[in-house]
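Why do we care about 3D structure at all? Because function follows from shape, and shape follows, mostly, from sequence. That is the central idea of this module. The next example makes it concrete: a single protein chain, its amino acid sequence, and then its structure expressed as tokens.
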Amino acid sequence: MQDFKDLDDKQEIDISEMISKLNADQRRVFNRVTNTIASGKSLLRLYVSGEGGTGQLANHILEVLQADLKDVSLIIINKVSMISNLILMYIHLRLSEIFDTTDCDDDWFDQKHILLFGDLLQLPPVHEDPAFIQLTAENVRKYLGSLSATNLWITLFGYDKLIINMCQQGSYREYLLNKITINELCDFISNLSSDTVCLLPTCHMCNELNAAMLSHINKTTDYIEKINILLLTSLEYFIERVSVKFQMMNRIYEYIIEYYYLLSTFLFFLLLLLLLLHSNRQSA
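And the structure:
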């Protein structure tokens, strides 16, 4: 809090100039926040995403906090991925305690406007659940001393998203993140060495990339070797060998061929055994 008090001793901040430098994406969210606050018709509860035991306060501390926060109408919380569901509840409880608004209608966060920023895929809370997860019954009893607790994230907050990445503007990484298609990504990976490893944040993204790479391999192959294996049981197996640069694919192909030939041999000897048993029964 001392940091904010020190602002008075520094050079004056030109708010108009800061607003003029906002891009269209940022201006849209800024207008949404300011219009909601200016209208006074509803409280702002908004999460904006982007691409990366409460003890009682002493009376004199309450008085200091009440004086410092009396003109505050908007509270902004950044890096929300590191805020646990318990910490978010503590913030609400502490504000309600400071201004004694526990028994008011819509008393969440002392009826302050709350704006959350952050990428939920970045650093998670330490040893606790993210803010959007419902508090467990055990934690409610242990830390809040009550029978139940509201999921503040789902109940109160709306959602918006910033798309324009200001940190990576003009860089090669920005091109990769914003311009590249799945086909271009497959072309890029195909030109890498055979020991390249791709790390993805979710299983879904991994499955999508695997499917795209397999389709890409079939389109860019030098030749395709097709083999039909006809077993004695009249079952026909069709195997297609794709010529690719990754040696693992060739080894897998060889294992498949070996498996089917072993299976065919086994079935052949099994059929001979059955014929011999049948012939011996007829002779008996």
